[in-house]
Design goal:
Blueprint lengths: L23 H14 L4 E4 L6 H6 L3 E4 L8 H4 L9 H16 L12 E5 L3 H10 L5 E4 L8 H22 L5 H24 L9 H8 L7 H17 L9 E6 L8 H8 L3 E6 L17 H9 L11 H13 L4 E7 L3 H16 L4 E6 L6 H17 L2
Parallel strand pairs: 1-2, 1-3, 3-4, 5-6, 5-7, 7-8
Helix pairs in contact: 6-11, 7-9, 10-14, 12-13
The structure holds iron/sulfur cluster (2 copies).
One iron/sulfur cluster binds next to α4, α5 and α13.
Length: about 400
């Protein structure tokens, strides 16, 4: 029998305040609808390389559009090749479903005035060209070698142009003061996420990985104020929670983003007895680890911070392996599940470097390459079981 994810849905949270969070999605949709009716501009984004600070400084709002659901993949395959990453297909499928069939696959698309995309992987870049036929799509170009001074200078120029585009959209001048205010706000959110992750260093941690993921998947969908309110509640409750319960294998997930709707692998890991203590992911540390320097020229400081995101689309990406090693030590990780989406060449190829780095620290790695369907749930569960047993029997 093939086990499906729907057999045991997440119904109980490790912390009470998360129940309060259940209707956050609908509340946000209502809020965005009201804002749009008041002529506020709303942009949709797909990637960490699009700085929120600039969007908010222009007086606009933003929502994340990354698709994590299998339901929209087959529709996208009528337009896109099958052998590209499911995140790209799911995202595009949400658009064509809404635009062409009148469905409600992604209610966000009906709310946005413009997509702000970025030149990262080939699949996304080419998908954005098609997306532009449905909704105006502005693409921020990115340097490929982010460590070089020329790379940061180039990205700063791209951000200046993006600033102009946002001013054109909203009619609001983006002053340095407005940028500084938004930098401070975004840093405050990042600091709260650090506070939450510090709590996960406890053994056992006071919160499940799946519960953290529930929040992280909505971090770029909610308003910054609402996200911070939830994070403060979470941290306060987790800090009060007594250290109790049996020790479980402490797992890090590293690799491709886990967009909203995609919980397959984390759920299997925690259903099979592990606890996820950290995610080296865009739905994890990549989104918040570094702060923007509040004392520098604001646009340059934003450029420097965002160029430190250790995304596999960049080359070289040495900082990522260093960061993974640092996280393994900091969170006392017993094993790493290296998670890649099918046809994501960048993260797939980088696995080799990560595996080499982890061998030096004697940290076991389980590589899982998958899509959004349930067809391999049983097979992944068997491999995760063996991985847990191996960790449990290690000295
Ligand atoms: S993996 Fe890279 S390209 Fe994909 S969302 Fe994250 S930062 Fe952007
Ligand atoms: S997971 Fe990989 S292939 Fe998919 S959008 Fe991100 S970088 Fe591109």
């Amino acid at each position: 029998m093939v086990r499906t994810l729907r057999e045991s849905s997440i119904t109980t949270y490790t912390l009470q305040c998360l129940s309060d969070f259940e209707d956050a999605y609908q509340r946000r949709i209502n809020e965005l609808t009201a804002r749009r009716n008041q002529a506020r501009k709303i942009v949709g984004t797909f990637c960490l390389f699009v700085p929120d600070e600039i969007i908010y400084a222009a007086g606009a709002d933003r929502v994340i559009l990354c698709g994590g659901r299998n339901a929209t993949v087959s529709l996208a395959e009528e337009y896109l090749p099958r052998n590209i990453c499911p995140l790209v297909k799911s995202s595009f499928g949400s658009v064509v479903s809404t635009e062409c069939s009148g469905g409600d696959a992604c209610p966000h698309f009906n709310l946005i005035d413009m997509v702000v995309a970025e030149a990262t992987c080939d699949a996304k870049k080419k998908m954005y060209e098609l997306l532009n036929e449905y909704i105006p799509t502005y693409v921020i170009d990115l340097p490929q070698k982010p460590d070089s001074p020329a790379g940061i200078a180039y990205y700063t120029v791209q951000l200046e142009q993006f600033t102009d585009a946002m001013e054109g959209l909203t009619g609001t001048l983006i002053t340095d003061d407005r940028l500084r205010r938004e930098i401070k706000s975004a840093n405050e959110t990042r600091s709260l996420l650090h506070r939450l992750y510090e709590l996960r260093r406890r053994d056992p941690p006071p919160i499940r990985g799946l519960d953290v993921l529930t929040v992280l998947q909505k971090q770029f969908f909610l308003s910054p104020e609402e996200l911070r309110r939830i994070l403060r509640q979470l941290c306060d409750e987790a800090e009060r929670k007594p250290n109790e319960g049996a020790r479980k294998p402490r797992i890090m997930i590293s690799g491709c983003p886990m967009a909203g709707g995609n919980i397959k692998v984390p759920k299997i890991i925690e259903d099979r007895g592990g606890v996820i203590v950290v995610e080296e992911s865009c739905t994890g540390t990549r989104a918040f680890w570094n702060l923007v320097d509040e004392h520098k020229d604001p646009l340059r400081a934003i450029a420097e911070r965002y160029m430190q995101i250790p995304c596999s689309c960049m080359t070289p990406n040495e900082w990522r392996t260093e960061h993974i090693r640092e996280l393994v030590e900091r969170f006392n990780v017993d094993g790493v599940v290296y998670y890649t989406l099918q046809s994501c060449h960048a993260y797939n190829i980088e696995r080799f470097r990560v595996q080499q780095a982890l061998k030096e620290t004697h940290t076991p790695l389980l590589a899982i390459e998958t899509d959004y369907s349930d067809s391999d749930v049983e097979q992944i569960a068997t491999r995760v079981d063996a991985f847990m047993e191996m960790i449990a029997s290690s000295p």
